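Our collaborator T.R. sent over the components below with a one-line note: 'Predict the complex.' Nothing else. No constraints on interfaces, no templates requested, no preferences about which chain binds where. So this is a plain run: every listed entity goes in together, and whatever single assembly comes back becomes the starting point for the next discussion.
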Amino acid sequence: KAGVTQTPRYLIKTRGQQVTLSCSPISGHRSVSWYQQTPGQGLQFLFEYFSETQRNKGNFPGRFSGRQFSNSRSEMNVSTLELGDSALYLCASRRGGENEKLFFGSGTQLSVL
Amino acid sequence: AQSVSQHNHHVILSEAASLELGCNYSYGGTVNLFWYVQYPGQHLQLLLKYFSGDPLVKGIKGFEAEFIKSKFSFNLRKPSVQWSDTAEYFCAVSRSGGSYIPTFGRGTSLIVHP
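Returned assembly:
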């Protein structure tokens, strides 16, 4: 069974630009979550999508948005990039029920210059 | 909302030393508890989890964790570490009773010297 796939692996952008990251979950998983990982803050939850609907949301500004398609693939968009958005963005999938463990992808390393 | 605190940000040990990584959470209700590990160059993966029952939970690679409800703690332990245990360790907590997403701690970087 293929794991969680995130593309691209690396991105370099400049301030003010916008970026779209992609995540393909494990087959059969309907939940996709996004996390921002930085050395000082650990993993911070952005949002979760389940069956194309946002089910949970973290405390990030509106510049961070996402969506999920009918095949459960998800995209995350960040508009008007800031230097502080430089981070590893992780996607995780699970079937969707309670108590299920998360399966993580390798992440997209975003650098904002 | 719940929060998670990991006391040690960096731990350096020699092989065969014992390990204990602290994790405390703040939430008054019933919780699910997790430890995830990220080996160098690899994905984050589940090390062990606690939902209910025996508060002493055993995971992969000889790790265990004990849930102490009165202390809101879920410390990770291993009696004798190996060089291959070098990794980043994350404690996570989610509210029980729904499809809640886990809240993660900041992580502890463990380096084991051979």
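Summary for T.R.: The interface with chain A takes residues 6, 32, 34, 36, 43-46, 49, 51, 90, 96-107 of chain B (CB under 8 Å).
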